[in-house]
Amino acid sequence: MTPTEIATAMTGRLTAVSQQRIEAFLPSPKIQNHAAFLHLLPDGALICAWFGGTLEGKSDISIHASILSHEADSWGPAQQLSDDPDHSEQNPVIFAAPDEGLWLFHTSQPSGNQDECRIRMVALTRDPLDPLRLSTGESRYLDDLPRGCFVRGQVTLRGDGAWLLPIFRCVSRPGQKWNGSHDVAAVGVSQDGGKSWTLNEVPASIGSVHMSPVAGKNGVVPAYYRRRQADAVHVSLSQDQGASWDAPRPTDLPNNNSSIAAIRMADGRIAVICNLASAQSSTDRRASLYDELGEDDDRPDADPTGGCTPIWGVPRSPVAVCISDDGLHFPIRIVIEDGPGTCTSNDSTDGRNKEMSYPWLLEGPDGSLHIAYTYHRRAIKYVRLAPGWVATS
Known about the structure:
It comes from Paracoccus aestuariivivens. By secondary structure, this protein is mostly beta strands. Helix content is 3%, strand content 40%. It has a single domain (3-392), classed as Neuraminidase, CATH 2.120.10. Strand 23 (319-324) and strand 24 form a beta hairpin.
């Protein structure tokens, strides 16, 4: 599809592709849309949040959301949930607190300087008179956490009720430009309902980012990671409900230095949604994530000494749901969509970008699977697979 064809399809209307599969392109007034996150509300409605604007890293990038009411045939209109004219606001995460409060976390950075990023937190309220409308309270920075903290994964609860916010730290190098070479995984911990935070790092995690924890089993909590090295999805384990973690180790899933997400399914197995690609599968490369911003910055790229050498530009496709019994080996790999996946440009207007990336997934109470992902940087695509999807795929 061309960018114009994608834009025409961005109506939000659900289309049955088969008896098992329904699709939609979410509505958005923006020309770039990326990093979808899905949240299921108690009444069965879905919220999809993402960031949109002209180009990732630009200050017009803001958080947007749309709601799909239970049994509706179309997503509601897109609405803007953030508006900071000086920062690029990215990677929304929605969390339903135990007291039923709904919270939005997202990043806020100047230009492409992820090492200067801060996390914002804001209350979300659904309008009782208009169920397709969300409103936000006053946002605040999580200033207890150091600059360079980024979010992407779902918030979980520790056994003692503490909130656990998955974080990856974009670590700066003095006098050098951030490029991901020293990024590490960490967990933000709040024991007072989000008022204050401490930070616990995951050991030996250089290059492991986008931490995606899943519900524990037999007392063990796994978390899955994207890798800056574009080698393989990694996993680390916590034996104490998320209070501490062991070092990440590779699974048999490839990774292309692009986002992944993981869930524990109702049947106890783990599902990871990702791109089945790695640096070994393609020679496509780009200089960095933000090499198209066109802003003057004469600092050299960060020296990888003591860290890793990030690999950017590996194609971002296909999107696949991968299922495991043991959390390390994923023999079932169901391709949701395939294509070139070209991502050597972030531009969403000229047709060069053909990535299908940053997928999110959740399982509905009826066993259906809800998926959202970036489509050519132009749109957020939604896919719903009917109950029994594993057997029929």
